[in-house]
Design brief:
157 residues, alpha/beta, 7 helices, 46% helix
């Protein structure tokens, strides 16, 4: 099912947005919070030639805890901490190096910053430039925090 979602975003949503903007090469950004943070990074990691900027807020980057032990190739290739730890393709790494990746976390309520730090370490180990944005007490796992972060990120352009 994740593959279908990914294909839908890449082959339907992105072309639709570009056609609507009347710009066939418009830069594509992703942004999401919690599970949306997962989708934001997963989409960029899979399509770094098209998606050039990502803001992942309080993301979930290791889905194993939700799978009750189920694990196969489909899961592996959609679990960022797994497949990104092993990326070695020069084209993919080159494209990822041209992206602006922001992984946001903090110390506010319900935040689990360990996943953001783990993903950051994996990206650093692969030589993928990125920003680990620790918002401290301004980064919690709830909409008031994400609303503030989204506004700040969008204001930076």
């Amino acid at each position: 099912m994740q593959r279908q979602y990914d294909d839908y975003i890449r082959h339907e949503v992105i072309p639709f947005a570009r056609a609507h903007c009347q710009s066939p090469d418009a830069a594509v950004w992703t942004m999401g919070a919690s599970l949306g943070g997962y989708h934001a990074v997963n989409t960029l990691f899979k399509h770094p030639d098209v998606v050039k900027r990502c803001f992942a807020l309080s993301g979930v980057y290791d889905m194993k805890r939700f799978m009750n032990g189920a694990y196969d190739d489909n899961f592996y290739f959609n679990n960022p901490v797994d497949y990104m730890a092993n990326v070695s393709d020069a084209w993919a790494l080159g494209q990822l190096a041209s992206c602006d990746i922001h992984i946001a976390t903090g110390t506010g309520p319900f935040e689990h910053s360990g996943e953001a730090y783990r993903l950051s370490e994996i990206l650093a180990g692969r030589g993928v430039p990125h920003h680990l944005d620790d918002w401290g007490p301004l980064g919690g796992h709830d909409w008031p925090y994400w609303k503030h972060q989204m506004r700040e990120y969008l204001a930076r352009g």
